[in-house]
Design a protein that fits this description.
heterodimer; A: 24 strands; B: four-stranded antiparallel sheet; 24 strands
């Protein structure tokens, strides 16, 4: 299992700070313990000391895995590092081992130093660099990548073909006013970053302080997007993916801002096209305006008239206006309904429940919708 | 044959069984149980050394009884220059692969605790570390500690490819409750969650909707970025900074499951700026709020007016409401916590780009 490992031996003075290290210090000259690295499928490699006599092994065996005495006997660190690696020492059979807590990094060099009876022995190890991934990561989808969006656009979702690296997003995307150049700080910059679990989709929020009326950021600087102006959203090709490799290419989306949208989406205005019964043809809904890509895919569901969920797959097309649902099992002729969760938002953060901002001084405000909105349909019998 | 060789031979003769045992024990160890933490972001201490950890990836809040309750008298200063380098060395990686997500001080012992991610990809591993005045970093052992957790209500239905997450941005322990502020990566809404501790079953209705009203007029559902508990005239409040910059106060008593709460704006923090972290402290008999910001440095804000600062209803020249002072000496502060009555612990980015953990006098 063990690969070619360079070794060198250096003599140093060891100071016995602990009684246990003192017990380890007497060693037979004709039987020097051997220090080596051994490959390990989980951590890359572990450090192994063989040839220790039983008395020393017994002494080591009494120590806790993270005892500082282990470090004074066996110090394992990244080459040139100021501190030893976290890990655990233990006695396995007739050998002492140190297992790093975390996998060693491909391409990095590590040293193990064993101090015994006033002598230090060092063994170095370099984990081979991992094979580069065959295909570069690409931008799969940007939503809403439309020609025209309202000037109070709230979110942009970017989906990648593979997981991306954290800590980069706000210097890898930018918004450019086609006439006047880059827009300063258009997005809310959150250290936590709004990724999904797989780190393949990031949500960018336009700075809400520049969208909402009555706040200083907007009053002093105006909204980020202004109606009738053109903008370009750009993704830098140098943005590294989780493997550290740049994207296959950058991404550009040019669009024009239209006037602000302050109207809630109303499911009653949508056009529903019932599917034929007996098959698995898609049920489609056409919206009056483009809706939020992620929310429309998740918050519009299909159920029977009794409220039992119908399993299937929902999708929103690239226009943001057409939602389709393909059931897992063929449609029956029973009455069904589409259930719309009132948290569903349009591109400007107006939900079915309420607008993005509510002027509480207006007396005849529409009521906040709290229950799902149902759109009944029956699959066609043709 | 030398004595050593004979001994080795003897061990070889009988050692098969021993080695076999060793190997099977290791295999059992390696069988991965679900880790106690999938990620570690915001941290907060409760009483008796209980550390609350926001686990965004798992959608959980985890309580760890650290057992670190030994008061060290007056908390000694903690200073570790280039702490991201030191952490990277311990975890066997490069500093650019380390994120220090939060830093808090255990008030029971004066030790600092750090939530760290090793790696920047989706498989990044969370690590909790602690450090005292000797500058020695130690891993916080979760395996040995008593750990309890509770799930945050996630409105996304299980099954299928759920991409919705609630990113936890801050946690605090107030009046027997763990308050958790978060932000969804889908709907624009603020759901502050109040969880009783010891944890009970989280109910779906535990979310509190937080609104912000600009000039008492235009209301939006605004996510809270960071907040701090504060006792004011016999009532406990949280002073909270919204993502849209205003600083508000909200009575903790109003934070009931299912409630809709509107914060009272007590200051606007100015544009091109985001609040990062805050603490409250007393100096010369007066209370101050110390707030670290992305672009406007560290602000020292006397809280005197907070009790009376009614909702700001008209616009004034600069930061509205409470007046603030910018502490020029404090630059690029990312994290703040109170170390003692007179000192604070900060995590700041140095001119060279490293992260330094430093003890400062409270200004």
């Amino acid at each position: 299992m063990s690969g070619p490992i360079p070794r060198r031996t250096i003599a140093v003075w060891a100071v016995g700070l602990f009684t246990a290290t003192a017990a380890l210090s007497a060693v037979a000259a004709d039987d020097p313990p051997r220090l080596r690295w051994e490959k390990d499928s989980e951590r890359g490699a572990r450090v192994v000391v063989e040839g220790l006599d039983r008395a020393r092994l017994d002494t080591l065996e009494t120590l806790a895995a993270d005892s500082p005495i282990w470090v004074s006997f066996l110090d394992v660190r990244l080459a040139g590092a100021s501190r030893p690696l976290l890990g655990e020492g233990r006695v396995v059979g007739d050998r002492a081992e140190f297992r790093p807590k975390f996998p060693l990094e491909p391409g990095s060099s590590y040293t193990a130093t064993m101090k015994l009876a006033g002598k230090a022995t060092t063994a170095a190890f370099t984990l081979a660099d991992s094979k580069p991934t065959a295909r570069a990561t690409r931008v799969l989808r940007v939503a809403p990548a439309l020609d025209v969006v309202p000037e109070n656009l709230l979110k942009i979702y970017v989906t990648f073909s593979a997981p991306m690296r954290r800590g980069e997003v706000y210097r890898r995307v930018r918004l450019v006013d086609v006439e006047s150049g880059p827009v300063d700080l258009p997005f809310l910059e959150l250290g936590e970053e709004l990724w999904d679990k797989t780190q393949t989709r990031i949500t960018l929020l336009f700075d809400p302080g520049r969208i909402k009326h009555g706040l200083r950021p907007r009053e002093e600087e105006g909204p980020i997007l202004r109606a009738d102006r053109s903008y370009r959203f750009e993704i830098d090709a140098a943005w590294p993916d989780a493997a550290g490799k740049p994207l296959a290419e950058g991404f550009r989306w040019t669009f024009r801002a239209a006037s602000a949208d302050a109207v809630c989406p109303d499911p009653k205005t949508w056009k529903l096209e019932p599917p034929p019964s007996g098959g698995r043809r898609a049920l489609t809904l056409r919206f009056e305006e483009p809706l939020d890509d992620a929310l429309a895919s998740r918050l519009i569901t299909v159920e029977t008239a009794e409220g039992e969920a119908v399993e299937g797959r929902a999708e929103v097309d690239r226009t943001g206006r057409v939602w389709s649902f393909r059931p897992k099992s063929p449609w029956t002729t029973e009455p069904h309904r589409v259930a719309v969760d009132p948290r569903l938002e349009d591109l400007a953060g107006n939900s079915v429940a309420k607008p993005f901002e509510v002027d509480v001084f207006v007396v005849d405000r529409p009521e906040v919708v709290v229950e799902p909105v149902y759109l009944p349909f029956t699959p066609r019998g043709d | 044959m030398s004595q050593g060789m004979m001994r080795s031979a003897a061990i070889l003769a009988t050692g098969f069984v021993i080695l076999g045992f060793g190997a099977s024990a290791r295999a059992a160890d390696d069988k991965k149980a679900k880790p106690a933490l999938e990620s570690a972001s915001a941290l907060a201490f409760g009483p008796n050394g209980v550390l609350f950890v926001g686990d965004t990836k798992a959608g959980m809040v985890v309580a760890i009884e650290t057992g670190d309750t030994r008061a060290a008298g007056e908390a000694a200063p903690i200073n570790v220059a280039n702490i991201n380098g030191a952490v990277a060395d311990m975890l066997g990686t490069k500093p650019q692969n380390i994120s220090i997500n939060d830093v808090v001080v255990n008030p029971a012992s004066g030790r600092a605790y750090l939530s760290v991610a090793r790696g920047q990809g989706p498989d990044a591993v969370p690590v909790l570390l602690s450090v005292g005045s000797d500058g020695k970093l130690a891993e916080v052992s979760i395996d040995a500690a008593k750990v309890t957790k509770t799930a945050l209500p996630n409105p996304a239905k299980a099954g299928g490819r759920v991409q919705r997450t609630d990113v936890i941005t801050d946690i605090a322990f107030v009046d027997g409750k763990v308050l958790v502020a978060g932000l969804s990566n889908e709907e624009f809404a603020s759901r502050l969650v109040a969880l009783k501790y010891p944890f009970e079953d989280a109910s779906e209705g535990a979310g509190i909707e937080i609104f912000h009203g600009a000039h008492g007029r235009v209301e939006t559902n605004s996510p809270v970025r960071t907040f701090v508990p504060y006792a004011l005239k016999d009532q406990t409040y949280i002073l909270a900074a919204y993502t849209c910059t205003p600083l508000v106060k909200i009575p903790v008593a109003e934070l009931q499951p299912g409630a809709k709460v509107k914060g009272t704006t007590i200051a606007e923090l100015g544009n091109r700026n985001k609040p990062l972290d805050m603490i409250v402290y007393t100096k010369d008999g007066k209370d101050f709020l110390l707030l670290a910001n992305s672009n406007r440095g560290v602000m020292k804000i006397p809280t005197e007016g907070a009790a009376t600062a009614a909702s700001i209803n008209k616009r004034v020249a600069d930061t509205e409401g409470l007046k603030y002072e910018t502490i020029a000496a404090l630059k690029d502060v990312l994290q703040l916590d109170k170390l003692s009555a007179t000192h604070a612990l900060i995590l700041a980015r140095s001119a060279e780009g490293s992260l330094d953990l430093k003890t400062i006098d409270l200004p």
